[in-house]
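Good morning C.,

I know you're traveling, so I'll keep this short. The sequence:
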Amino acid sequence: MAKTLERKTEVLVLNQISPVGLARFPTERYAVIREAKSPDVVLVRSQDLHSYDFGANVKAVARAGAGTNNIPVKVLSARGVPVFNAPGANANAVKELVLAAMLIGARNLVPALGFVEALDSAAPKLEQLVEDGKKPFAGFELPNHTLGVIGLGKIGSLVADAAIRLGMHVLGFDPEITVDAAWSLPSQVRRASSIEEVLKASHFVSLHVPLVDHTQRLVNVGNIEQTRPGAILLNFSRDRIVEEQAVIKGLQTHRLKCYITDFPTAGLLGRPGVVALPHLGASTHEAEENSAVMVVDQIRDYLEFGNMCNAVNFPDVAMARESPYRLAITNANVPEMLARMSHALGSRRINIHNMLNKSRGEMAYTLVDADSPVPPEALEDLRRIDGVLSVRYLAEGPRASAKV
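The tokens, ready to paste straight into the viewer:
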């Protein structure tokens, strides 16, 4: 029988995480701490971990949010460590901010507020000054205008649905849309065949794509001139999705009426037509709670039962438990790996009751339920297989995370 460690599973929290989520860690099995040399789990929001020393014990890293650009995913993948996130947990918060941004742009609210703030409260005929000065800020209403949505995941779909309910036309583009996202997309959304088609046809363009190599500078100097004259560009994805010089050029040529972004940069601050918010997309109590609850539940399901859900570097894997003796194995996605694992167990006279293996790119994940206890020698046999990155023995149910 594997030896049980007495210490609790250490969860290192590096940023302010909602206590509603943290409370879901049972105190008899988990220790939620603010400092640790070698924690089992690292839970983070915004802190940059690219130079962080994770220590030898780390089994999982999770971000209480969607993007994982602040986490060295490739480094952790090489160690067989999943990186979890909370896709969709902050979707409603971002959707509402996008709607606010559209109204800010359509009704010229920022310059209008600036005008009022500059008024002298002691000026004679103040009311007349207000009436005379408001004309440049006249705007337009949203119904019958076209919103282009680039990226039709959870947030993009919610934005599209909300715009339709406001009487807008919606044009969407996402070459990598998932089946689930396609099913949740409102039927009134017209599908575009390219980003350029969206730029040409839309009064508003809202970006909702992750920051990866092929989405950097998605809106750029090369395509900004195809934007419908007077369009409003909304960026609540990541700053590098939009090329800064493209925005400057678009504003100068009046292709863009304004650029509203959640990511202030030195080059855009103070420029006419730019409205920059301090990264407020997920900054609601509800979104912070949703994200924390989601990642904590995913971490527990992985540590205690071996199931993998919403790891950005591994496939989703869930297998009903049919034995008290479970192995969770992360491995490189290479030929004959399952045969080698089976042979390692069979040579120790361990019968496989059930097995599930799935892959994602270069990574694979395998769950094995055995009919008998798995001795330390068999675990070492598995770890010695070339391409096996980590092996966890989840014996005797919910205390699985405390087994080695």
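Safe travels,
E.
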